[in-house]
């Protein structure tokens, strides 16, 4: 067994921890199997010039975790070969936002302690995304991808030809596509997605009784954003307004001196637009939720605290669903819940 064990004198990892990790690793890769005898504490300490206390501490941890057992007069043996090595997961998200972090935190909390999840943000950049996949090729048990990219003109695209090629190289049993579907990547895999066009349509439909009391709907859809949003949101909004004969307008942003009129209902996507709009409503002494309505896209704890009505996917459920499907060895496509969350701002 000694040929498979390495103790790094220069590492900041304690020696006993290195022993524990080395034995677990050798079991996980098949170098050690159930019933194999391992060296005695004295033999181990002599081979690596370690104190007996150091080796004994490592063996005690392994015994407590029921990975090894000691048989009086015979020595130490491997007793467990399953569920001891951590599952390694690469989690790729397009931007660092509060709601994306809710997905990530929900996933990590649900997947359990027997896993290690590395988070990387690729900022909607195709080259950075491809480099991250290439650099980490074959290094993880699962790859979670949230596909949102931008063109040179800062327009949103769900994927590019090169992204599809790279994602297709990931074994299907290791791939989880989350948030935004990639129809060109087929096969049996895990996919938890939003249906952006129908989600916004159905959520607004749910709130129609309150929405219809306003005279005009204004959607602020950020154009040429560093982190662009899917155009399908626009399509769903337009379809809702046309089908219900509602007057509407689409703006690129909330301007610093907006012309606000009683009976306006704003639907904001960007966080900065929401803040700017609410400040202007208050400065001009309109009553939020009565004179002027506000709906925000994507819920956050702060919006809940401030009583802002939202239309939003359930980010917590998205993370929980991905974790459950991994743990239960499930495959398939799951549409994530999208809700109209009625609060005081309309």
What are the salient characteristics of this protein?
346 residues; alpha/beta; Arc Repressor Mutant, subunit A; Rossmann fold; 3 domains; 6-stranded parallel sheet; 6-stranded mixed sheet; 12 helices; 17 strands; 36% helix; elongated
Secondary structure elements and pairings:
Layout: H1 15-28, E1 37-38, H2 41-48, H3 52-64, E2 68-71, E3 75-78, E4 87-93, H4 98-111, E5 115-121, H5 126-135, E6 142-145, E7 149-150, E8 156-157, H6 161-168, E9 175-179, E10 190-193, H7 196-206, H8 208-211, E11 216-220, H9 232-243, E12 248-251, E13 264-268, H10 271-283, E14 293-297, H11 301-306, E15 309-313, H12 315-327, E16 332-335, E17 338-341
Parallel strand pairs: 4-5, 4-6, 6-9, 9-10, 10-16, 11-12, 11-13, 13-14, 14-15
Antiparallel strand pairs: 1-3, 2-3, 7-8, 15-17
